[in-house]
Write a structure and sequence with these properties.
Blueprint: H1 9-21, H2 26-34, H3 45-50, H4 73-87, E1 93-98, E2 108-110, H5 120-136, H6 156-160, H7 163-168, E3 176-181, H8 191-210
Parallel strand pairs: 1-3
Antiparallel strand pairs: 2-3
Helix pairs in contact: 1-8, 5-8
């Protein structure tokens, strides 16, 4: 969460996710027994401490620093952990938690840019995961029931440096990697609302991993 420092809602979504995972339901207990979860509540710690926004930072922000020579040591550390999990076949899900523009009134996922061209198991993974999110990520901030795409990023080189794309390019068909944008400019965009979004995401992931 918070590859862009100002997007504090992402950290609260992550907290809701972890609170559900740590809970007493049979589904949460089964998830804990079979799954290892890594959560980074704040990636851009320096700009959080400064009170800066972090997005479009110079020379680039954290979410566009995922290449072979990252500027930020925290990005390099995250890359190393992700690659280690991929190499041993243990990465099934990657979520980058953000807040979008002020005009967006419900949470949504940025999906793969090549989604329409996907076929077979990879397309099935993304379709099924989204359908489970629609079931579990409901009130008070229901998830948009379709993927959106980061068409505002104009070059392939820059898209390749975004963390969700960087991870997706390295994972097998049975894994999903995506960005969750949780609306912040609504009456329900509160700590409690964000916690509910995170809980729903955790429920959807648990259901997906059980299949």
């Amino acid at each position: 969460a918070r590859q862009h420092a100002w997007e504090a809602g992402g950290s609260w979504v992550g907290r809701g996710f972890l609170e559900w995972v740590a809970g007493d339901t049979p589904e949460a207990a089964a998830l804990r027994a079979s799954t290892e979860i890594f959560f980074i509540p704040i990636m851009d710690v320096d700009n959080v401490a400064l009170g800066a926004g972090g997005k479009e930072a110079v020379p680039r922000d954290h979410n566009r620093d995922w290449d072979t020579r990252p500027v930020y040591p925290e990005v390099a550390a995250a890359q190393q952990r992700v690659e280690a999990l991929i190499q041993v076949g243990r990465l099934r899900c990657y979520f980058d938690l953000h807040n979008p523009g002020s005009g967006d009134k419900q949470p949504f996922f940025f999906g793969p840019m090549d989604y329409e061209q996907m076929t077979g198991p990879r397309r099935a993974s993304y379709d099924r995961f989204l359908s489970l999110c629609v079931q579990h990520m409901r009130e008070p901030l229901p998830i948009l029931p379709r993927y959106r795409f980061a068409t505002y990023v104009k070059t392939q080189e820059e898209r390749d440096r975004m963390s969700g794309n960087w991870v997706r390019d390295r994972t097998p068909a049975r894994a999903v990697a995506m960005t969750l944008e949780t609306a912040w400019n609504t009456p329900h965009s509160t700590q409690d609302g964000y916690l509910h979004v995170g809980q729903g995401l955790a429920k959807a992931m648990a259901a997906w991993l059980r299949e």
